[in-house]
Amino acid sequence: MSEIITAAMVVIGDEILSGRTKDKNIGHLADMLTAVGIDLREVRVVPDDQEAIVEAVNGLRARNTYVFTTGGIGPTHDDITADAIAAAFGVPCGYEREAYRLLEEHFAKRGIEFSEARKRMARMPEGAAHIANPISVAPGFSIGNVYVMAGVPAIFQAMLDSVIPSLKTGAKLISVAIPSPLPEGTIGGPLGDIQTTHGETIIGSYPKYEDGRFWTEIVIRSRSEEALRAAKKAVEEMLETLLKRN
Amino acid sequence: MSEIITAAMVVIGDEILSGRTKDKNIGHLADMLTAVGIDLREVRVVPDDQEAIVEAVNGLRARNTYVFTTGGIGPTHDDITADAIAAAFGVPCGYEREAYRLLEEHFAKRGIEFSEARKRMARMPEGAAHIANPISVAPGFSIGNVYVMAGVPAIFQAMLDSVIPSLKTGAKLISVAIPSPLPEGTIGGPLGDIQTTHGETIIGSYPKYEDGRFWTEIVIRSRSEEALRAAKKAVEEMLETLLKRN
């Protein structure tokens, strides 16, 4: 068996908590990590507040292989993620030489002032490594097991694409979805029994409500193809038996 | 000044963390709470795991006026929210008499077996009060300052509608959005100065990336209309000055 690799995510930003911006990054990260066999174990959405960011990052990095953050690395006063991550690691935060050079060159080429605000984007905790930003140059960074990325979805996704190949990945969690025309209340008992006898799988059951009718999506997950197949067979037989009766 | 009312949210479900289901409830709760003057301070997404749910709920209920949970109150073996909330409060969990009666009657009317699985939906922590479910009968519940609701968005929204009028609400945080054609790097410095001199407001700046161009949405929030107006004026004058120069 391969090692189990776990991850947590910290979404940073008042605008998500106020509802003004609807997060699109949680679902994307979840999909990407699942695809490469990393278990996303927890997500926290926190405000632009240093204490809240430090608490979340330190709590989560201690118990996960990786922590991914989004948001708060732009040039304005409310972008405090670099300082907060430095505080979480107890290291100084300042201009990172290569990031400063990249940004200076980028703006000079375009005849745009390299303002104090823009210089903020070169700030990183001491010892951080760059995460490339192919869209708007200002890099994200990683320190320890924490990956700090932009909140704008297009930039977050591009940064994540460059991070993923460098990660340790686990045995991929494979899954199969079985639609059940019967509602959860009917299948719940026997499905629980199947879970009990198929310990190498995780069986989830998701009620769907559409056009005034309930149906259920049963999802079986496992790191073993054989275990998945066996549980799938058990679920299908259970559904067949119940459908004959109902 | 009115009291500041704060809230946290716990989204419960493996299916959100795997990416299979994309959460739609965070944004809706954020919008609803902002509308009635309650500050959503933190959101956590946790798996169907009792220890994780207990830790999140107990951590958050101690420091917020309200905690709202979604997910895990259906009839199947992976629906463990009622037991987890009971464990968080240190009280027993069992069939709640009125919920049991409602469900029994509901299923009897429809000639549907009141199975062991369906009976699970009548389980609540001792001392819990119902949250009505106008869509599929099985109630949510509240205990202490924690409101436990369904994960299916249509049912969550209906339950929340019945909860909101019973909540203490704070002075509404009013906001104004000012679109800036100038990117964050240009406005960042002066905007930080405006934040410093307008302490009764929270000024956020959100980079927007569309069709290869950056622009910025500046959002000013305050509980005071007067403070909001003054900060808005300062931002507009700042933009005017910068636009003349650029």
Automatic annotation (TrEMBL), chains A, B:
<dbReference type="Pfam" id="PF00994">
    <property type="entry name" value="MoCF_biosynth"/>
</dbReference>
<dbReference type="InterPro" id="IPR056596">
    <property type="entry name" value="FLAD1_M"/>
</dbReference>
<feature type="domain" description="MoaB/Mog">
    <location>
        <begin position="8"/>
        <end position="170"/>
    </location>
</feature>
<dbReference type="InterPro" id="IPR036425">
    <property type="entry name" value="MoaB/Mog-like_dom_sf"/>
</dbReference>
<dbReference type="InterPro" id="IPR001453">
    <property type="entry name" value="MoaB/Mog_dom"/>
</dbReference>
<dbReference type="InterPro" id="IPR050101">
    <property type="entry name" value="CinA"/>
</dbReference>
<dbReference type="Pfam" id="PF24102">
    <property type="entry name" value="FLAD1_M"/>
</dbReference>
<protein>
    <submittedName>
        <fullName>Molybdopterin-binding protein</fullName>
    </submittedName>
</protein>
